[in-house]
Design a protein that fits this description.
two-stranded antiparallel ribbon; alpha/beta; single chain; binds uracil; binds 1-O-pyrophosphono-5-O-phosphono-alpha-D-ribofuranose
């Protein structure tokens, strides 16, 4: 299991304001965009490049461009939608797939209600979901993308709980997780502590 916690003063600053319960949805959405952009850059650190000859105004040089291997970003609806735009802004050829999962408020079990995915074989797949709590949603999403041909699927989260990380490792060993924070634990209602509350509700003002 490979868990990468984003270490950057700006990420810490943004996350503090996301956690703050007085932050309003409009600001929350902006902060979610900014932190997801930092995570998108970090999670794509190892994607392939190829060489390209160019001429600067002063001389020719061999430089690098991204290799033609379109990426796929897969938000887990609904909260994951708040993390998509950074990927589409910086990777113009990215494809977007959708997995709709909703946790039952009583049991915290995730129920699938939607799935629309492009071909995934041979592509880097980034499953984005701000909260990795019990891990149930992430495990289901990983299962679905693998059923659709993904062999390189990573998770990109904002706040993760140790329980969720362990669940992903149990059912999908070796999965890489990029997260802005690894929090303490879940409460009895399976919310992350200290966490930031219900991300979807705070993002959409519901
Ligand atoms: C939240 C969150 C994750 C899930 C994490 O979504 O966005 O998808 O819970 O919890 P888990 O790790 O225990 O599965 P939720 O089901 O509340 O739906 P929403 O995105 O529509 O708000
Ligand atoms: N989903 C959320 O939005 N927040 C949590 O703390 C757990 C699951």
């Amino acid at each position: 299991m490979s868990v990468h916690v984003l270490e950057h003063p700006l990420a810490a600053h943004i996350l503090t304001h996301l956690r703050d319960k007085t932050t309003k949805p409009a600001t929350f959405r902006t902060l979610a965009y900014q932190l997801s952009l930092l995570l998108a850059i970090e999670a794509t650190r190892d994607i392939e490049v190829e060489t390209k000859m160019i001429e600067t105004p002063l001389e020719p040089m061999e430089s690098h461009v991204l290799a033609h291997q379109p990426l796929v970003v897969v938000p887990i609806l609904r909260a994951g939608l708040g993390m998509v735009q950074p990927f589409t802004d910086i990777f113009p050829d990215v494809s977007v797939g959708y997995v709709g999962l909703e946790r039952d408020h009583e049991t915290a079990q995730a129920r699938s209600y939607y799935c629309k995915l492009p071909p995934l074989a041979g592509r880097h797949v980034f499953i984005v979901d701000p909260m990795l709590a019990t891990g149930g949603s992430a495990v289901q999403a990983l299962t679905v993308v693998k059923q659709h041909g993904a062999t390189d699927a990573r998770l990109v989260c904002i706040v993760s709980a140790p329980e969720g990380v362990a669940d992903v490792e149990k059912y999908h060993p070796g999965t890489t997780i990029h997260t802005a924070a690894l929090d303490r634990e879940l409460n009895v209602r399976k919310y992350i502590l200290p966490g930031l509350g219900d991300f979807g509700d705070r993002l959409y003002g519901t």
